[in-house]
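Sequence in, structure out.
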Amino acid sequence: MADPYVPMPDDWQRALAVVAHPDDLEYGPACAVAAWTTAGREVAYLLVTRGQAGIDSAPPEEAGRIREAEQIKAAAAVGVHDVTFLDYTDGVVEYGLPLRRDIAAAIRRHRPDILITLNYHERWRSGDWNSPDHRNVGIAALDAATDAGNRWIFPDLLEQGLEPWAGMRYVAVGGSPYSGHAVDVTGTLDAGVAALDAHREYLTSLGVGHPMGDARDFLEKKTQRFGERFGGVPAIAFEVVRV
């Protein structure tokens, strides 16, 4: 029997979520985001791409427009109204200094207490292989969390008026196979379902019968499964990385 999850730390007020694609947060973490915004905490989103390669039947520019609009609607459903896109090319995001710099700049701009990102490990809990975009963005976010506090890393950011920010306590990683913490989402499951359902055109493109096509069924099963290790309440799990 796996160890029970412990509650996520709650000694924070501002969060910045950094993920690769529109919809990455909506497969579970957005339910927790809704719980946090409902409690009065501030959350902003930073999307590295616009999901341009996500719809096989739509050219990248059209797909990007569709998925950007869906992401903004999804964020609003969980109380997030600050959504920024970096315009990296979907599917070929590379780990490197430009990505670290852009995320560090966003951290300095938002000055969050915590960072939220998606699974950066090679595999998901299921054992399935994780995509390079997720891995590269997750690792870059972890590195940028410390880059943002050092004035001698990316000193050009100082010229933009972006002073170092070393006030982050930890990074919360959604979808990680090494999760040990969880958030009770009893009261915000409906908001999470609305957020995932906001990606309707994208979800439809996945085809009939895809497990994520039914937003409510998908999230109810996921939160119940996590809840088995969290007092029996619907929950979303995170890996917590101290920075």
